[in-house]
Design goal:
340 residues, alpha/beta, D-Maltodextrin-Binding Protein, domain 2, 44% helix, disordered N terminus
């Protein structure tokens, strides 16, 4: 009798584990790493906050949060995450290393970066050499904010050793680094850009948030935030990739169809830097960078490749096939099945 009771209890426990995986029961678990709280990644925050991942049948486990885009890339390559919310240019880096990392939905079609200085900054973009000797804050080494600085230096034949490039994170932490004099200049994204002005910490000197600004800085549109994964994940778990895209398309539509105040109201406090009124201003300032349909535009992908080739010897010497760095296949599938 006792033996039969133990066997029955074990069978029940196994059945429960089989039927109760994920938060909603029957959900597919996916590990996703996010590089930062920057507004470029807002579509992911909205998808999480509004429950869109659960709606499409995914149990998303978020890892390595707010440790910088380069850390997220490392996590993906090391196999400790399945999917990354990071910047498109990292897929180009990986192809130069003969690793197939593929963007499968585009969240932010433009840079969103600014370069700011304190009110008394002596840096003048019209006199590029004025940057020499300065401490320049970026989100993290190897990040797209790092690339921004290196691109500026390469454009003006200024050796990278003529400045000090310092990782200071993003959001309020980055603004504090500028305010406290830990850096002379700051290259960062919203909400930091809006916080700088709102708090009187400094002024925006170079602004690449608009299409016009991006073309002035890079010579073209510079796609940034994407969901990317190794090709093996996309091959082995195409249904999971499509579900991720479906959730992100819901989030992109929400951003396009709602006011900045409504968008911020949907976010829990952990995603909001500073007070909500200022954060709403940041959302409005960054609105132009978000895609509506999640699709990659092949012509725009030439811009980050050109930028990276200026200062990255591995990429400059490699044969880069941009067609292997992205796919619109999952966006097409998700869009075709939007009524499901």
């Amino acid at each position: 009798m006792y033996k039969r009771f133990i066997l029955a209890a074990c069978a029940a426990a196994i059945a429960c584990l089989a039927g109760c995986s994920g938060r909603g029961g029957g959900e597919e678990t996916v590990r996703i790493s996010v590089g930062s709280y920057n507004l470029n990644n807002l579509p992911f925050f909205i998808a999480d906050a509004n429950g869109y991942f659960e709606e499409v049948g995914l149990d998303v486990r978020t890892e390595n949060f707010a440790q910088g885009g380069s850390k997220v890339l490392q996590a993906l390559v090391a196999g400790s995450t399945d999917v990354a919310v990071g910047f498109y240019d990292h897929t180009i880096q990986m192809q130069a290393k003969q690793k197939n990392v593929v963007g499968f939905v585009l969240l932010s079609r433009n840079s969103g970066l600014v370069l700011a200085g304190r009110p008394d900054s002596t840096f003048d973009p019209a006199a590029p050499a004025s940057i020499r000797g300065m401490k320049v804050g970026i989100t993290a080494p190897g990040s797209s904010s790092d690339f921004f600085v290196r691109h500026f230096l390469a454009q003006h034949d200024i050796p990278v050793d003529d400045v000090s490039i310092i990782g200071v994170g993003s959001g309020a932490a980055a603004v504090a680094a500028l305010d406290q004099g830990k850096v002379d200049l700051l290259v960062n994204y919203d909400p930091a850009a809006t916080l700088i002005a709102a708090r009187g910490v400094g002024r925006i000197i170079i602004d690449a948030r608009s299409d016009e600004g991006a073309r002035a800085v890079y010579g073209g549109i510079y796609p940034t935030s994407v969901m990317y994964a190794e090709q093996s994940f996309l091959d082995e778990r195409p249904e999971a990739a499509e579900k991720i895209v479906r959730a992100q398309l819901k989030a992109l539509a929400f951003i396009a169809d709602h006011s900045a105040e409504e968008i911020v109201a949907a976010l829990p406090d952990r995603y909001v830097s500073g007070d909500r009124e200022i954060y709403a201003q940041a959302v409005e300032a960054a609105r132009a960078i978000f895609t509506r349909d999640g699709r990659f535009e092949p012509a725009d992908l030439e811009t980050p490749l050109m930028v990276l080739r200026e200062f990255n010897a591995d990429i400059a010497s490699a044969e880069i096939d941009l067609g292997k760095t992205y796919t619109n296949a999952f966006v097409d599938r998700a869009s075709a099945g939007a009524g499901r």
